[in-house]
Amino acid sequence: MSLDHTRNLSLEDMDRESIFHPATSIADHLEKGPNIMTSAKGVRISNSKGQDFIDCGSGLWCVNVGYGREEIAEAAAKAIRDLSFNHMFGGNSNEAMIRLADRVLQLFHREAGATHLSKVFFGTSGSDANDTIFKLILYYNNLRGRPLKKKIISRQGAYHGLTYAATSLTGIAGYHKAFDAPLDSVFHTSCPHYYRFHETGESEQEFCDRLILELEQLIEREGAETVAAFYAEPVMGTGGVFLPPADYFARVQEVLEANDILFVADEVITGFGRLGSWFATGQMNLKPDFVTLAKGLTSAYFPVSGVVVSDRVWQVLKEESPNYGPVMHGFTYSGHPVGGAIGMANLDIMEREALPQNSATTGLYFRDTLKARIGDNPFIGDVRGQGLMMAIEFVADKDKRRWFDMADGAHRLFGAAAIEEGVLARPLPMIEVVGLSPPLCITKAEVDEAVDRLARALEKITPDLERLAAKN
Ligand SMILES: Cc1ncc(COP(=O)(O)O)c(C=O)c1O
Asked: Which residue of 154, 172, 295, 305 sits with most ligand 1 atoms within 8 Å of its CB, as the best mutation to test the pocket?
């Protein structure tokens, strides 16, 4: 057999033969083949068939400054010429990453009032950052002489990534199936999505009271001396864009404080402008012990993640770790200098173009325009959002709050129709929600265009939704 078996294959077939795709049905992929993207600029992306789309997903919630920024390309080229690689083990360092860490901390201090945040540890993905935090939580309590305090509370519907510890923190069953997850030390409490999960007659306040009580009871049942940390996305993304009740986090934080439990804010999506301010930490008045960052830190022009460590955790590491020797955790690409330069160029654009502010104002415009256009459709239960993190939730019967059968994929029909109309919008895996998170540079004219297309997509599938709704 010839070794060069790819010679006569189309790119599509070469993909089928050679790539094991993430989060993809193998059977579907072998049947349908790949969607090969070729170029992108601003909010628009094109594929090899010459189709153009408005990317209302920003890739995977990550291309915050939009595609094809010349100055980031220049910064990357210069960084590769100057210092194409350098590691950070054993105290090695490089200027770009030193400046990026300092800038991230300054942004947290200045824009979020989070002056207690003290150090940044770099990685390359949101998942590895969460695995780093998971390990540091264990490390912290070992150093404090509390070897039993190791359990972690996460939430149903959470998405924290797909490395092993992160998979366990993730609270969506589909990601656990056949992977022997979650770990026994991770517990998932209810998520604060009132629209879908409140009981009949329950007010939002009562719903919030119930969730806080559930958290307190879980801690009491397990014993506070065994619970180390609580993990949360400020606005849950992949689960379905869940905006918590107004005082939810204030009350959660009170419970954590009373029980000496660390609070981790996973700002992988919400960080760097997505919600209409620099960080949810400031916007929602959070006081996290760790913050997870990725995506918007470089707008995905280079894989860089950050674990931001609070002073309270840092003090323990600083005082106690000499008894244990060097902190033996890290990755080859922790603190990659090219990522540092790209991160700096990305933040220059965000600051200069005031993208977090654009996210606030254009986000509001997007949500309200969309709501006005599609909100009355009988199968649209909720159109919600904060900044440019938005969602459409589908319902089979609005008045009776009867949901579609998830297996029917009502929201996936909408995702497919939106693609036909030229918009990438993301059907999410847990309930019938389509996420919308365009680049933060989107203009009102582009929003109008996207909303027109989304409205057309909905119109197209409404007869199918009627059929599915009548089924159950
Ligand atoms: C909140 C959150 N945390 C962590 C992750 C994992 O990031 P990555 O895919 O870079 O590993 C994601 C990815 O979408 C996320 O949304």
From this structure: 295
